[in-house]
Amino acid sequence: MLLMRLVTVAMCLFVALPLAWLVYAAFIPAEALVRANLATFGFSLENFAALANSGLWRALAISFTASGLAVLAQLTFGLGAAYAIRNGARLLGLVLVLLALPSELLLVPLYRQLQTLLLIDTLWALVVPFLASPLVVFLLLQALRRLPWELVEAARLDGASEPLILARVVAPIVRPELLAAAVLAFAAHWNLVLYPRVMTTEALWTVQVFLTDLLRTRPFEWGLLGAAALVASTPIMILYLVFEKRIVATFEAGFRS
Amino acid sequence: MRARRQAWWLGLPATLVFVVFSLVPLLSVARYATWRWSGTAEPISIGSANLARLVRDEALWQSLGTTLLFGLIVLPAFLALSLAVALAIEGLRVERFVKALLFAPGLVTVGGSAIAWYLLYDPDFGVMVELTGLRLPWTSQPGAALLFVVLFTLWQQTGYGVLVMSAALRGIPREVKEAARIDGAHEGELRRFVIVPLLRPTLAFLTIVGSVLALQSYTAVYLLTRGGPFGSTRVLGYYLYEVAFERFELGYGAAITLFVLVFTLIVAVAQARVLVGRGVRGAH
């Protein structure tokens, strides 16, 4: 037990150190860096101001648009697919296979596919292949399996159409799971690195591509790098902080079954 | 029955997306693998030359070795850390705090995480060398570089493992533990002979998750080392990316995709066998 506690403490320090330094670096005044002297390290917001003309805001706008559109579609289509599976459509096998597929396998063939469809190097290249996500379908299916099915049967007896049942009966009940899936799906899309780099050029750079480029071109500007990394992380952090309990619960429920 | 059929239509959009943007591309890889293709110009068919090249490609086999080595270090470490931390914090007041902290790297966007590690540990520009003079050799020594990517991956993912493990721990009925205690088991024995065996399905689940993560480590490699030094961190996924999109040999990239696909299937089947076998024995 003592050993496991020590491991836990070590793990916590190991995890916290880069995070703490990242936050700290973001608020260092630039001149402290030139002197590389800890004693002069103070507090300043100039790093954030320096980001104004760096292209970060543009990259943020592109990421927000692409991730937002993708997530909206993933929830709508994902709920439809989960509902179809719950009603006996044989799709689960396909979903599970895609879920276990390492993402790098799609880089080359998707490049060709997007080229054929004339989508390469457009904003749609970042959206269209992500209109449905196997993870979202899987999570929502777990939610539907817990749903009391009499509600659906009753609505059918009342003569409601299937799309109406999905929108008015099912969706409101699984709202917590929809929110949790939305956060996870948003984070997954927001965190794509190589995919946007391969499928688009500089005018469509997402936040991740911007960050990796910044690290390459200005490696000695700690403050600027730290500030950019923090700004780029805020959307996910806010989403998580707001929905933490939902996300943990969905994870646990998805796992139990 | 008619209602059910109607409901199936609602699955159509997602199915279409899966078919057009996952299934068809995956099946087409076999055709693309017969091309010489730079990505921009029209492809030229060259038959099985790319496949023959796979066999002779030393860099490919080296990267297969690197991937296996990476997985063999990351996976046991991931499982052991998740289990140890989940057991250590169970029921303590700090449980929620520790879980939140360990999960936090997942909230920093991946590019930001790379920046965080870089700011701290870079041997030329990092704060570690500025303050302590300790120059980590991860940009120059092959072994250190791979270890660095391993640590980064554990840093990112262990929080999730702890979360899952801890949920499973909470799922063990209290009566089971109490019965063991009444039978005279002390805490160490309780853990070893009662709790850990009950966690077997969870360990199996995390093994599968961990393997997928290990196979997708190419993003971390891209962010931290770009395959270097001397190709020592060039895992399969990164090699695939490098061939296709830095050397612009997409036809050969498709052949490597096939190779990785086959490798993934072998790993999946092997795991299914081992895990199912163990599960059966565990149940008796």
Low-confidence segments of chain B, given as residue ranges, are 280-284
Assembly of the depicted chains: heterodimer
Percentage of helical residues of chain A? over 70%
- Which percent band covers the strand fraction of chain A? under 5%
CATH structural class of chain A: Mainly Alpha
Main sheet overview of chain B: 2 strands, antiparallel
| Biggest interface, chains and residue tallies | A-B, 94 and 94 residues
Mean pLDDT of chain A: 89
Round the mean pLDDT of chain B to the nearest integer and report it. Answer: 89
Q: Estimate percent helicity of chain B.
A: over 70%
Number of helices of chain A: 13
Please state the structural category of chain A: mainly alpha
Tally of contiguous helical segments of chain B? 14
Q: Please give the order of strands in the largest beta sheet of chain B.
A: 1-2
What features would you describe in this structure?
The complex is a heterodimer of chains A (257) and B (284). The radius of gyration of chain A is 22 Å and the shape is globular. Helices cover 72% and strands 0% of the residues of chain A. Chain A is an all-alpha fold and 257 residues long. Chain B has a two-stranded antiparallel ribbon. In chain B, strand 1 (35-36) and strand 2 (44-45) form a beta hairpin. In chain B, helix 3 (49-56) packs across helix 14, helix 5 (95-103) packs across helix 8 and helix 11 runs antiparallel to helix 14. Chain B has helices at 2-9, 12-32, 49-56, 58-89, 95-103, 110-121, 127-132, 142-170, 174-182, 187-198, 200-215, 218-224, 236-245, 250-283, and strands at residues 35-36, 44-45. Chains A and B meet through helix 1, helix 4, helix 5, helix 6 and helix 9 of A and helix 1, helix 2, helix 4, helix 5 and helix 6 of B.
Reconstruct the topology from this structure.
The complex is a heterodimer of chains A (257) and B (284).
Chain A: H1 2-26, H2 30-35, H3 46-50, H4 56-86, H5 92-99, H6 107-116, H7 134-146, H8 150-157, H9 162-173, H10 175-190, H11 194-199, H12 207-217, H13 222-256
Helix pairs in contact in A: 1-13, 4-7, 4-10, 4-12, 5-7, 7-10, 7-13, 8-9, 10-13, 12-13
Chain B: H1 2-9, H2 12-32, E1 35-36, E2 44-45, H3 49-56, H4 58-89, H5 95-103, H6 110-121, H7 127-132, H8 142-170, H9 174-182, H10 187-198, H11 200-215, H12 218-224, H13 236-245, H14 250-283
Helix pairs in contact in B: 3-14, 4-8, 4-11, 5-8, 9-10, 11-14, 12-13, 13-14
